[in-house]
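Weekly puzzle thread! Below is a chain. First person to post its structure in token form gets bragging rights.
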Amino acid sequence: MRNLLRYTLVLVVVSPYIIAFVPNPADSSLTMLEIGAGFGSYADVSRDCEGNVVGVRHVPFSDMGVSARHQTSNVRFGVAGGSTSSEDRLFFGDFSDAGRDRIWYVNPTMGLNYRDFGIDLGYVFPLNDYSYPNFGVPVATSGYPSLKLRFAPVHGTHWTIGFASNLPLLTGGGLVETALVFPLGSPESTLGIGLGAYPWDRIALSAKSDFPFTDVFGMGLRGQFGLGGEGPEYGLAFVGRAKF
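Winning reply:
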């Protein structure tokens, strides 16, 4: 399993180099549609009062999402939605007692996009009830805010920080992620290397690549590998996009 994950991360890193780049100048106004799906496993670790590990259970999970965004020269707005599924508590809490194994959400966003700085703000609204840990009855939740920050020009090497802003939400890089993104020959071809957190027990190494097939269609690969010592934690995702 560990070898498979290492090879997958290598594929994510080198994939832009083995697919022909299609130069595509940035438009002042465009609409972007994306769809993605992924799967992975995280460690549910029990520790005593001194922090010693007393039990480890590996929990498989999956997620999927779609988004639509429109961008003008400086303003960007859109909506994303999707679901997460797990056999244990995940993202919104322990929903297994409610008899559900999938949580649906929607995330409307709005942001500003400048040459050296970008920011997107939104809110993740759950669309079904779940159970808080230790209560065991369905209750509603107000959800979570989402945030995405970019520092430096988007078509050059830049730094991003995100919370609840990836697509898919978890296997896109983690609920919390920071990354350096490098251009690879065209505005649409990039490689990002960073660190992600949640749902993994420890910090995960995150790699993501994006590359175009044509002026309209492109693809992205996402991979995470847990850096903790409690067994394999990983996430893998594929993203397709269309730009108009």
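Puzzle host: Confirmed. Bonus trivia for everyone else. Residues 2-243 form one domain.
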